[in-house]
Amino acid sequence: MPLTEFQLIGRYFSPRARSAVLGVGDDAAILRPRRGRDLVVTTDMLVAGRHFAAEADPRLLGHKALAVNLSDVAAMGATPRWATLSVALPRVDARWIGAFSRGFLRLARRHGVELVGGDTTRGPLAICVQIVGDVPTGKALRRDGARIGDDVWVSGTLGDAAAVLAARRGRLPLTRPERTALARRLDAPQPRIALGERLRGIAHSAIDISDGLLADLGHICERSGVAAIIELGCVPCRRALARRLDHAAARAAVLAGGDDYELCFTAASSRRPALSSLGRRLRLRLTRIGCIVRARPGTACVQVIGPGGAPLNPGRTGYDHFG
Ligand code: ADP
Ligand code: MG
Prior knowledge:
This protein is α+β, with helices and mostly antiparallel strands. The chain is 33% helix and 24% strand. It contains ten helices and eleven strands. The chain has a seven-stranded mixed β-sheet. The termini are far apart. Bound molecules: adenosine-5'-diphosphate and magnesium ion (MG). Adenosine-5'-diphosphate binds next to β2 and β3.
């Protein structure tokens, strides 16, 4: 007998509420904000055929659906607390749903996030997650705080996920071991929550890199009314990509590929020692890739300096769902 909607929710999507006043099971959840904190709310939708393949591994999909939302919370310097999960499923496939729920709830547990509600319906496969986080009042990291003279930093390495996709489409020659190593970064991104929280009081602005470095740093520049100059040679990437940077597809993956889920942030140059020690403490590579300058009409808000100091025309700047 196939499960009913309520059995399905009860079995796979009803962890016991701990920090929520009321979790799954009523018409709505009840959440109580902590004193002295602002609430931070974000949502992201993943649609089969657009953001993932319908045959994708459900456990990894559960992980990724939550991870991409946690990445937005990280970029705000916030602590994630509660999540809702809405899913449209073409059919009730207990194995699929069980694996999806395990991937989702495992990552939720790791970050202390409680699933407090959602919606479950039949339809073309789509997943929508919402997260509520919190941050000390007035201390959230925003896109509009970059200042002229700031350094531009990124965490981790860029281009890994996009490189795998390019390789699968035959646009970038990668060896099989290289592909396997990079595929983890596409399938199971690790949201930089601890970094975001510790950047409060250090960074002037932050964003997570989901659409590609140039596009996302461009958002910081637009919102802050400034421009940025970055050096291609400084942008951190794995060896598989670093040694192919003269290849257009590799360069595009690093600068404009997207799906990185690393943080890009700006900070005063006086913060370099603090950021080096933070990177060591978190065991996370933090790399200075350029600086914030005055915006000039008629020039791109993010300029890339190539080998030898010549400006580079990177072409496409990022992923655009309507492009
Ligand atoms: P209503 O019809 O009042 O909207 P539902 O029948 O949709 O209620 O949901 C019943 C309960 O189960 C609600 O608390 C809802 O938040 C929760 N819920 C439904 N689907 C999910 C899901 N996929 N994950 C977590 N909670 C869910
Ligand atoms: Mg409902």
